[in-house]
Amino acid sequence: MTDIRNIVVLTGAGISAESGIDTFRDAGGLWEQHRVEDVATPEGFARDPDLVQRFYDARREAVQKVKPNAAHEALARLDAEWEGDLLIVTQNVDDLHERAGAKRVLHMHGELLSALCSACEARHSWSDTLFDQPACPGCGEQALRPDVVWFGEMPYEMERIYTALRRADLFVSIGTSGAVYPAAGFVRDAREYGARTLELNLERGEGSYWFDESRQGLASHLVPDWVANLLAG
Ligand code: APR
Q: Which numbered atom of ligand 1 lies nearest the CA of 13?
């Protein structure tokens, strides 16, 4: 793959599964434990803010007890050694990519360790709870919500993502079911712009048909292998 210079990597919950973070749609996943409408929509938040805040408080606490795994570490190595363009677009709201050392990371669905003020729209690093309605450090209003993108809301930095997809020579999808748009459509966008496409996932995702190549297995095995081969040139 010597003609590869610009790479876009899309990651999903599957890359963090081996670190002990539940995925959404696998057996026993988050969407089996909670109704999406109750905990991941603006309407659900308006209806029962306490339920939603406690749901994300529990996830925020849990993510601080786990560690990055070999798949996160391999992408951090790629980030450090790859001289071309690289953008790791993650659907995940955990900070495991950054804790593994990756820098070129974009959180399109937001971050658990950030609070967004609905009054002044400021963002604040946040590792504590929000159900007790703390005041916004900026404007003092009790209007802080989880800085995550709920269903029906616009994902973050879409322009930057599409710019990277337009320039990509290689698009790699890791640990995502391909069930949620717009992320699920990135493989077709990348193809349209001439990129090679590779899926690394435990099982074939919903958009697997659109990939030039699909490898099944654990992310902690597939990703280090792929990165080592790529860097070996
Ligand atoms: N290694 C590789 N892949 C794995 C592993 C693993 N250890 N464990 C699970 N997977 C795969 C599953 O086979 C599945 O295809 O990861 C995928 C996880 O899919 P989802 O649970 O649907 O998570 P994701 O694709 O990230 O969800 C997308 O949906 O609920 C919303 O906003 C939320 O960002 C999320 C979006």
A: 26
The structure's pTM equals 0.97
CB within 6 Å of ligand 1 — which residues? 12-14, 17-18, 23-26, 29, 91, 109, 175-177, 179-180, 201-203, 205, 218-219
Neighbouring C-alpha atoms within 13 Å toward the C-beta of 71: 26
Catalogue the active-site residues: 109
Q: Calculate how far, in angstroms, residue 12's C-alpha sits from the geometric centre of ligand 1.
A: 5
What is the CA 57 to chain-centroid distance, rounded?
Answer: 18
pLDDT tens digit at each of 233 positions of the chain: 558 999 999 999 999 999 999 988 888 888 888 899 999 999 999 999 999 999 999 999 999 999 999 999 999 999 999 999 999 999 999 999 999 999 999 999 999 999 999 999 999 999 999 999 999 999 999 999 999 999 999 999 999 999 999 999 999 999 999 999 999 999 999 999 999 999 999 999 999 999 999 999 999 999 999 999 999 98
The span from the CA of 188 to the CA of 171, in Å, is 10
Cα 120 to ligand 1 centre (Å):
33
Taken in order of first residue, the domains within the chain and their CATH numbers are 1-21+68-109+155-233 (3.40.50.1220), 23-65+114-148 (3.30.1600.10)
Q: Please, which residues have CB within 8 angstroms of residue 94's CB and are 6 or more apart in sequence? A: 16, 19, 21, 63, 66, 112
